[in-house]
Amino acid sequence: MKIAFVDDEQKYLDEMTAIVRDFSTQYCCQVETVPFLDGETFLEAFGDGGFSAVFLDIYMDGMDGIATALKMRDMDNKCVLVFLTSSVDFMPDAFSCHAFEYITKPFSPQRIFKVLTDILEVLPPLQKYIEVISDRKIIRIFLDKIASVITDAHYLDITLVDGEKVHCRMTMSEFVELIDGDFRFLLINKGITVNVEYILEFESSCCVMENGTRFPVRVRDRLKIEQAARDYNFRKIRERQAHFARRSAPEDIKKGD
């Protein structure tokens, strides 16, 4: 997440930054924080896009939070907006700006943790992608749409889940570097990489994909390859369990656990 903090009091900017840093460490998620001391400066930066959420103080010198939020909504109606204030008087106006939450000062780390967890629930997951050149065009391919990658001389044939093929000049080592260690992709034989998400089963010395394609598995490494696929699926289950655990964690924090 990339979060903007807009408050004309430096102490609150510092406090929010520290709380979010703790949240990022505890929940193993990358969060970039950008502080602003006034609405005008924030709006200039917001126009460039890229913010996942905005924590915005209502009472500020110069342009107040409501006016800032209305201008922000003219540029983006989807960014998550959280108001910070010392009074509930402006709550009706705040929610007319499609505010996600309304936090009163002084705020506790537990309250901010809860709101951040809720924000993570509504934000769409970021999809990783790579860019390749095919037919002299730059093509962006989402990794979760790749079923298999096969070496063809100095080229790669990238087969997508829908059956489409992308032919590009690239080596397998260059592809591996592009995906940056993504555990979904498994090298099962020389020049053959498959997405574990779309493996149906291992049958003798073959890897059978969901689309019916069969690829030969390197015989001497067959057991190791099958184990790597099982490890990936196990990791997915653990991540799903951790996801549900995070949803209840803020309540545990409140109880002092």
How far do the termini sit from each other?
Answer: 26 Å
Q: What is the structural class?
A: alpha/beta
User: How many strands?
Assistant: 15
Sequence stretches where pLDDT stays below 50 over 5 or more residues: 246-257
Shape: elongated
Average pLDDT, all residues: 87
| Major sheet characteristics | 5 strands, parallel
Q: Which assembly state applies to the chains in this document?
A: single chain
Strand order of the largest sheet: 2-1-3-4-5
Secondary-structure element order, N to C: EHEHEHEHEHEEEEEHEEEEEH
Which percent band covers the strand fraction?
25-35%
Annotation field: number of helices: 7
Fraction of residues in H or I helices: 25-40%
What Rg is obtained from the alpha carbons, in whole angstroms?
A: 24 Å
